[in-house]
Write a structure and sequence with these properties.
single chain; 6-stranded mixed β-sheet; 5 helices; elongated; DUF177 domain-containing protein
């Protein structure tokens, strides 16, 4: 949550560029409560849209369907993001591909909305850090999109639900060879086998030597 809040705060403090693919202009809404704007946009994926084992590769196309609605406090953004995922199966390490669909909703407050609660010491710093503000008429969707995508990712992606994984002894992919196995001695007999070998070695050491076997005998 701290990382989530920090990114939102960075978005609040940053100066927005209206040409950026994830910056949207809300001027048409005109601060009229109930005013609505729907739009679709294709944008290149930014970095950090993923976790270690799966994610949206930087630069691929992300399809956005958005609903921007003017309310008393600001602009409510509701949307869906669709993008291809690439990663690897956590069981067999084979590459995998998926289609991501992530829903999100976020309120962007007007810069001058409720200044007293914005700057007063309310004691609820976490709530203040989670608040996003419009910069003029512009809003930056990037931190919201990043959080929505990452939170929608599977933490343990698999190529199929019944993936058997890899052989613990040799690393072979078990799905390619369902009958794969290694012959192993029964551990219940391993101790007895070791004892028998030790007794056999002892008998050899204690066996009487034939005349002439002792190199010191003349």
């Amino acid at each position: 949550m701290a990382r989530h809040s920090r990114r939102k705060q960075e978005a609040l403090n940053a100066r927005l560029d209206h040409r950026a693919p994830l910056v949207f202009d809300t001027r048409e809404l005109g601060r009229r409560p109930g005013a609505l704007k729907k739009l679709s946009r294709s944008v290149p994926a930014s970095k950090d849209l993923g976790i270690e084992v799966i994610g949206v590769r930087e630069g691929v196309t992300v399809e956005l369907d958005l609903r921007l609605e003017s309310v008393m406090e600001g602009v409510l953004v509701t949307g869906t993001a669709r993008a291809p995922l690439t990663g690897e199966c956590v069981r067999c390490l084979e590459p995998l591909e998926r289609e991501l669909e992530a829903d999100f909703q976020e309120m962007y407050s007007y810069p001058d909305a409720d200044d007293r609660s914005r700057f007063a010491d309310t004691g609820d710093d976490a709530e203040d850090e989670d608040t996003l503000f419009l910069e003029g008429d512009l809003l930056d969707l990037e931190p919201v999109l990043r959080d929505a995508v990452v939170l929608s990712l599977p933490l343990q992606p698999v190529c199929r639900e019944d993936c058997p994984g890899l052989c613990a002894e040799c690393g072979a992919r078990l799905a390619d060879d369902p009958d794969h196995h290694h012959d192993a001695a029964d551990i219940r007999w391993a101790a007895l086998q070791g004892l028998a070998e030790a007794m056999s070695d002892g008998e050899k050491d204690n066996a009487p030597r034939e005349r002439g076997d002792d190199p010191q005998e003349k």
